[in-house]
Fold this sequence. Notes:
This protein is α/β, with parallel strands linked by helices.
Amino acid sequence: MRANGAKCYLVSGGFDVITGPVAALCGFHEHRANHMNARDNKILGTVQTPVLDRNAKATYLEHYCKQNGIDPIDAATIGDGANDLGMLHLAGSGVALHAKPLVAAEVALRLNYADLTGLLYLQGYKKTDFVFK
């Protein structure tokens, strides 16, 4: 998608120590996730507020769409859990990937037996179109 001009963002309810390297490896433009508090190279067991939740994911989708001059109806999002429902419903192509039962019940577009490349196929890409870093 990025090779064809799309902007790609990773927004996760996980932690930035994981999403940062994944985002860099996969070529995302930006990433957002929760930040675990640490001091003197020791994890404190607390998370920096605000915690990235369902509302935050939808807000980031709106933010990135506005930043790029597109409507959320023209965006694709992918998620598996309840905290993804806001952005999945907001996007024109909200895709449930290996979704939890609640998400599978609410999201019509589902990839149950594919990996993330399934999103590329849904957009009309062929395997020969894939660009690897």
